[in-house]
């Protein structure tokens, strides 16, 4: 078996081990499920082991399959780390994040980095899998579960606020509880993980959140922002991001009343193989500039 075929087989074993699905593995490899089955069967004949067993939750690897998965990661990392420092400035970086943050990043990094914005998944397990398999170089969003192969850094923490049109007929420079109840809202279907150390405040916020008069539910944070700018609708937004948006749209970002004070944390995630790459860390520094507080 050639080295190229060895890597194909090892990668198929690794992807099936992490995804648990022949179909997902085929999608990542851009082949048919039959081709994945062929590679796995080839590995079974070579090793004399079943490698995987079927469960209700998908295909589960045995000990040998897990060892082969780790072998693939080691070989792939040796190849990638040898070329990464040289090639990082020459290739496109795959970055997955919210569409509104894509806009802010694009403005900041327009002339410095080639970015390929990948569709941001609603599923945290899928986000982790794409990072592990290096389909995505950088994932920016809510905090993911701890994973030994993924570096996780807090990008920013912000109080929660509201975004409203600058031409809103009733909301001026202060947002009140009456404003919350008397206006219609846009809901971002992906949602955000709001946090607070105060359990009573958290329950109160949840109750008020459920009392919104919802006009629209939209999947794109950028579309939600644009709709807010040209209507009388209200949306929740991290106040730091709202302030960054103000120069771009006819909107204003306002703090919430004390009864609704919550916060939002955003994290940047990347594969640990980038940890020692100087060019990559320069890129992270540029990304951090997007969320620096305005003076």
UniProtKB/TrEMBL annotation:
Gene3D superfamilies for the chain: Periplasmic binding protein-like II, Winged helix-like DNA-binding domain superfamily/Winged helix DNA-binding domain
Domain of life: Bacteria
Transmembrane segments: none
Alphabetic keyword roster: DNA-binding, Transcription, Transcription regulation
PROSITE patterns: HTH_LYSR
GO MF entry, a single one: DNA-binding transcription factor activity
Domain annotation HTH lysR-type: ranges: 5-62
InterPro entries linked: LysR-type_TF, LysR_HTH_N, LysR_subst-bd, WH-like_DNA-bd_sf, WH_DNA-bd_sf
Family: Belongs to the LysR transcriptional regulatory family.
PANTHER family on file: HTH-TYPE TRANSCRIPTIONAL REGULATOR LEUO-RELATED, HTH-TYPE TRANSCRIPTIONAL REGULATOR YIDZ
Protein name: LysR family transcriptional regulator
The species this protein was found in: Rahnella woolbedingensis
Top-level taxonomy: Bacteria, Pseudomonadati, Pseudomonadota, Gammaproteobacteria, Enterobacterales
